[in-house]
């Protein structure tokens, strides 16, 4: 049987389908249960065709995480523009929904999944992914009204991701933590982070007023 020829538009659609399917698989079942066979079956392509887009499942993961960034930025903008929400309520809502990724459809890797992806990525791909992450957190801070030089995007990323990953790790990966207060932990951490962001935001406002 002759192999089907795909147009550029069809290839673009298939690539996007692979990324969105990967995001949903991470949310629903985790990376370890999301094999290339499962992904190909869901998208309706052959394994051979998969490898014309990505060299491995882990490379797909890095692209899928980038792919969800514009959606997250749009969501942050919507919250900031919502007249029914205060600035603080908008930022807290965003962070909490990211922490509860399984409920809100946001793909967050576990500690083990991050290790697995890193081991399979080339140094070049890893550094490119890291730079995209720095850019993403910088844009997020800007949407929240915080100049990039007021908070290091890398620090903000570490603080936000650590909350998400620890919450996801309870109780399976971190059994000595207390799962019954996991959501209270998120509430506390989000409040503490937003307290600092609010302080920095006020400092920036005061400097502008004095200038």
From TrEMBL:
Q: Gene3D superfamilies, alphabetically?
A: Tetracycline Repressor, domain 2
**Residue ranges of domain HTH tetR-type in the record:** 12-72
Q: Which UniProt keywords apply?
A: DNA-binding
Query: Which domain of life, per UniProt?
Result: Bacteria
| Residue ranges of DNA binding | 35-54
- UniProt KW Repeat keyword: no
Asked if Transferase is a keyword of the record, the answer is no
Which named protein is this?
TetR/AcrR family transcriptional regulator
Which organism is this entry from? Pseudoflavonifractor hominis
At the highest ranks, the source species' classification is: Bacteria, Bacillati, Bacillota, Clostridia, Eubacteriales
